[in-house]
Each structure stands twice: as structure tokens, then as C-alpha cells.
Design a protein that fits this description.
Blueprint: H1 3-8, H2 12-27, H3 29-35, H4 40-53, H5 74-87, H6 91-98, H7 104-113, H8 132-136, E1 143-150, H9 155-164, E2 169-175, E3 181-186, H10 191-207, E4 216-219, H11 236-244, E5 248-251, H12 261-275, H13 283-299, H14 311-318, E6 333-334, H15 365-370
């Protein structure tokens, strides 16, 4: 084979077999075997394949055995594909949750071969301190992290949110020791809904045996957590935690996003395992499914950063005087407060109209008199 022919060739073996066939057809099998320094049987084989299949007969055939005893059965492979599409679970979680009779490596290979990987969520690896052992050593349900999640950036949920009037914001509280999560929802990102969330959770925790004086709730410096207030002694989010319930509150350090890593990681899990998979028919259907997922997460879902244990398992192992029903607090949706609007003549956009007596709604005669108007509304 000349240098020019070799450089232009993409498959040297195919070109050599084609030359053998062409030479044999022109000069005979014996001459071709002598010219290419091979056996006559080899020449006959390629001539026969070329006559039966054309150029495709000169391609290299697979040398894989007809039967592979250790290959994953097709029934198992179909189960893996079905459960992966339904749950988005990793190979390890698929094996544990559904007792699939295949190794983790085999499950991962099947997921990759069928294009079921989720590469859009990958982030550059960043080595951080491993605090899992430290968090596991803490007392359960006494070190909580709280954050919010804007659900409108999830494509599969956004459409349903506008069509069915579903809530836009999720308020999440997570325990560092057990990994349990507690959810509430609201249409606005405000101090009111954040305060209602912690008031409801702390009251429920106290009824289940949690010593609130030892509890610490950590948040970022967002305005929904009163992070913009200089004085937290009256009203607001921090006042509710410390004054009403006697618990403790702390803000994350500025420019330290990893301080809220626990609750941020649960946001990633619930997006992949719940919001990207579920469809809802109404607001009540959304609440039922959210409660089902939260109960599954707190009572049965294995947490690999917690030694492959569910939050309920960790609580039972600690033998603390806290009732397991603490994990049964269901999610709720906080509705938008009603706004009275009147569009009568001379009335502002959000200003209610006066009554027939000339007073504002809820205004007494004494209040009207102090304001400089007669009790009759003059």
C-alpha cells in the first residue's frame, strides 16, 4: 500500500480486504494469496463475503460471545429505566429504595447508556470541611437552619403555579442532626409568613418534648428574617423566637454561604425528586402531595450523609424524650391577607370609603372627636 493511499484510508483493514477481493477477481485466488502472502482459504472467505453482502461483508464482525451469563437481565434493565424516569434517583438510591438486583456500577452504566443522566445540575467540585460527623454528634432537633426557596424558576412547576394559583415561595426548616425538613408555603416573601412558620413549628416542637431553651435557629440576613432591622427587641421574626418561645436565633456570617449548606442541599433534593416530577390538579392536591413527600423524607428516605438512616431512625437511636410525632407536622399554605379596595368617587386606590355616619370603618365616635371631626362625621 502506498503512502498516499494509507494516509487517505480511514480503515486499513477494510482497504486491504477490498484489494484482495479485486486482485482475486482479476488474477485468481491462487495469485491473490501469493501476492498478499496469505492463504487461499482467507482469500476465498473475503471473496465469498463480498459476493454475498457487498462492501458491508468486508467490515469487522463483532467478536462478542453469543451469550453473556453475567449480563444484566433485560427485565432488570427495564426496571432501572422506569424507576429512574419516575424518581430521578441516583444509582445508589435506586438500588436501596427498590431492591434492584444489580450493582451500583451496572445501574449507573444503564442510566448513561439510555441518556438519563442529569448533567445540567453539575457544579465544579469544591473541597470543603466534612462536618457530617460533627453534625451527627449534636442533639437532635436543637440546631435548625431556615431558608426560603423561589419555586418560580422550576419550569415544570412554574406553568402549574400560574394556572392553579399555587404558592410561589417555600419556607424550609431543616435539622442539622437528623436531616429532617419542615415546609410551609406562601405567595409572598415576607416577615409575616416566616414568623408564622417558626411560631407553628416551635409550638409543635414544644408539645412533642423539645426543650426550646436549648434550641438554636439559624437564618441568613434576608429581610424576611428581619435581617434589615437594627432593633429586634420588639415584634418581628427574632422577637417571636426569643421572647415568645424562649428559643435562640443567630444570623449566618456575612459572605459565608456554606453556613446554610444543610438547608440548601435539601432544596436541591426536593426540586429533583418532587417539583420536577409531580403534576397537580388543585391547591389541595399540591398540599397533599407535599405532605406525602415530607413524611417520606422524614420517616423513610435514607440519608447517605447520615449513615444511610432516615431522620426517624436517628431520633429513635438517640433515646431522647422527644415524641416521633414531631416529624408529622404537615405543610400549610399561608394565604394572601385580604385587602379592602373601594373605587368610589374621591377614594384612593387602597383607602376604604367612609360609612354613612361619616366615620372610617372601625372608627368609634370618641376617635372621630379626637381627630377634630364631630361624632356624626362632620
Amino acid at each position: 500500500m502506498s503512502y498516499y493511499t494509507m494516509i487517505r484510508s480511514k480503515d486499513h483493514q477494510f482497504d486491504l480486504r477490498l484489494d484482495i477481493v479485486l486482485h482475486a477477481r482479476q488474477h485468481g485466488i491462487r495469485a491473490a494469496a501469493r501476492h498478499f502472502e496469505t492463504t487461499r482459504n482467507t482469500v476465498r472467505k473475503w471473496v465469498r463475503r463480498f459476493a454475498e453482502e457487498g462492501k458491508a461483508g468486508l467490515e469487522e464482525l463483532s467478536r462478542a460471545p453469543a451469550r453473556c451469563p453475567h449480563k444484566t437481565p433485560w427485565q432488570t434493565e427495564r426496571q432501572i429505566i422506569h424507576q429512574r424516569e419516575r424518581t430521578h434517583f441516583s444509582a445508589r438510591r435506586l438500588k436501596d429504595e427498590f431492591e434492584i438486583k444489580a450493582g451500583r456500577a451496572a445501574i449507573g452504566r444503564i442510566i448513561r447508556q439510555h441518556g438519563l443522566t442529569r448533567t445540567s445540575r453539575r457544579k465544579p467540585h469544591r473541597t470543603c470541611r466534612d462536618l457530617r460527623a460533627h453534625k451527627m454528634a449534636q442533639p437532635p432537633l436543637l440546631n435548625l437552619q431556615m431558608d426560603t426557596k423561589d419555586l418560580s424558576d422550576i419550569p415544570t412547576y412554574r406553568r402549574q403555579m400560574f394556572e392553579l394559583g399555587l404558592p410561589r415561595y417555600q419556607f424550609t426548616v431543616r435539622d442539622e442532626c437528623t436531616g429532617a425538613q419542615f415546609l410551609t408555603y406562601g405567595s409572598e416573601l415576607c416577615v409575616t409568613y416566616a414568623t408564622l412558620t417558626v411560631r407553628r413549628l416551635l409550638a409543635h416542637g414544644a408539645s412533642c418534648g423539645i426543650n426550646l431553651s436549648d434550641l438554636v435557629l439559624t437564618t441568613d440576613n434576608g429581610t424576611e428574617f428581619s435581617g434589615n432591622r437594627l432593633d429586634h427587641s420588639e415584634n418581628g421574626f427574632v422577637h417571636t423566637i426569643e421572647s415568645e418561645f424562649g428559643a435562640n436565633h443567630s444570623f449566618n456570617r456575612v459572605a459565608h454561604p456554606n453556613d446554610n449548606a444543610d438547608v440548601e442541599s435539601v432544596h436541591a433534593s426536593i426540586e429533583a425528586e418532587f417539583y420536577e416530577l409531580e403534576t397537580f390538579s388543585s391547591l389541595s392536591d399540591f398540599i397533599d402531595k407535599a405532605a406525602c413527600y415530607q413524611h417520606y423524607y422524614n420517616l423513610a428516605r435514607l440519608n447517605y450523609s447520615k449513615g444511610r438512616k432516615a431522620p426517624l431512625d436517628i431520633l429513635r437511636e438517640r433515646n431522647v424524650p422527644i415524641s416521633p410525632r414531631v416529624f408529622l407536622l404537615p405543610p400549610v399554605v399561608f394565604g394572601r391577607p385580604p385587602r379592602h379596595r373601594c373605587r368610589g368617587p374621591g377614594v384612593g386606590h387602597d383607602v376604604p370609603a367612609r360609612t354613612e355616619s361619616g366615620r372610617w370603618p372601625g372608627e368609634t365616635a370618641e376617635m372621630a372627636e379626637r381627630s377634630g371631626r364631630s361624632p356624626e362625621g362632620g
